[in-house]
């Protein structure tokens, strides 16, 4: 952790948050041993953190299996965030219009550390096998919305994120060469959009564009449309879907700017 004031940093709180964050992926219930392994914070600290989170209602324990899982109270925190943020409220009508026109799923994502998290979603008319919901977290460098958010950051910040990243191949198309990835991000900034061909999921195209808002018109979110290759060729997606996604992102940005002026 760089640039941290260690006189203010509460290590025990950070460890508790690490425990909450380790409940991700397919495994919904964890033993204390598994929590220790995932957090790497030591058995004593893990026990105290788990007990505190259980006592305060953020973890539930099955007394028979001795396994822990997240409690509904965690979801209330997420709801509090969405209630406090106006991005999703502004974006959803435009997202629904985009989805209605093309019949595909539309997402809105924000950056968090070196990841992105989905904060709004309009499912398409077609049934998808990819299970994505609000709160889903993806690596920034392995998704079109993540890469477009990176592209519109300051170049030094984007370079630092790419430099420190551990790149994983989710498909044969996932970018893993850091030099090529940086060049690709530069091109995305020039183009104003990203077209991800099966970066995270086989058979999925993802078209993304930046949403601007907040102070000095900085990028605040990424809009993306998910389209299966079973219904779209890359050529048709570039011709039809890219302009639609870019235009919708501009509408959302304009609505954000208008609200900021009125506040």
Specify the helix fraction band. 40-55%
Strand numbers in spatial order across the main sheet: 5-4-3-8-7-6
Provide the gyration radius in Å.
20 Å
The biggest beta sheet is recorded as:
6 strands, antiparallel
Q: Segments where pLDDT lies below 50 for 5+ residues?
A: none
Give a description of the structure.
With 263 residues, this protein is an alpha+beta fold. It folds into two domains: 61 residues, Winged helix-like DNA-binding domain superfamily/Winged helix DNA-binding domain (Arc Repressor Mutant, subunit A); 178 residues, GAF domain (Beta-Lactamase, 2-Layer Sandwich). The two termini are 35 Å apart. The model has no long low-confidence stretch (mean pLDDT 88).
SSE order and pairing:
Layout lengths: L10 H11 L10 H8 L3 H13 L3 E3 L6 E3 L1 H13 L2 H16 L2 E8 L2 E8 L14 E3 L4 H8 L3 H10 L13 H14 L2 E4 L6 E9 L6 E10 L5 H29 L1
Antiparallel strand pairs: 1-2, 3-4, 3-8, 4-5, 6-7, 7-8
Task: Kindly list the characteristics that best describe this protein.
263 residues; Arc Repressor Mutant, subunit A; 6-stranded antiparallel sheet; Beta-Lactamase; 2 domains; alpha+beta
Task: Give a brief description.
The chain is of the alpha+beta class and 263 residues long. The protein is built from 9 helices and 8 strands. Helix 2 (32-39) packs across helix 3 (43-55) and helix 6 (144-151) crosses helix 8 (178-191).
């Amino acid at each position: 952790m760089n640039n941290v004031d260690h006189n203010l940093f509460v290590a025990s709180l950070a460890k508790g948050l690490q425990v909450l964050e380790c409940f991700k992926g397919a495994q919904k219930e964890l033993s204390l041993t598994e929590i220790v392994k995932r957090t790497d914070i030591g058995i004593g600290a893990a026990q105290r953190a788990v007990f505190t989170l259980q006592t305060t209602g953020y973890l539930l324990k099955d007394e028979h299996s001795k396994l822990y899982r997240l409690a509904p109270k965690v979801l209330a925190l997420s709801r509090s965030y969405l209630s406090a943020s106006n991005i999703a409220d502004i974006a959803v009508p435009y997202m629904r219009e985009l989805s209605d026109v093309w019949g595909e799923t539309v997402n809105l994502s924000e950056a968090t550390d070196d990841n992105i998290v989905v904060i709004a979603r309009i499912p398409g008319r077609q049934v998808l096998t990819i299970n994505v919901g609000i709160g889903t977290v993806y690596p920034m460098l392995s998704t079109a919305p993540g890469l477009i958010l990176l592209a519109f950051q300051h170049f030094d910040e984007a370079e630092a994120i790419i430099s420190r990243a551990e790149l994983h191949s989710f498909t044969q198309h996932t970018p893993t060469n850091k030099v090529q990835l940086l060049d690709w991000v530069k091109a995305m900034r020039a183009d104003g959009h990203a077209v991800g061909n099966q970066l995270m999921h086989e058979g999925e195209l993802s078209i993304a564009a930046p949403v601007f808002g907040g102070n000095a018109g900085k990028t605040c979110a990424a809009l993306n449309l998910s389209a299966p290759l079973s219904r779209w060729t890359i050529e048709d997606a570039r011709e039809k879907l890219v302009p639609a996604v870019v235009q919708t992102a501009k509408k959302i940005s304009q609505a954000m700017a208008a609200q900021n002026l009125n506040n």
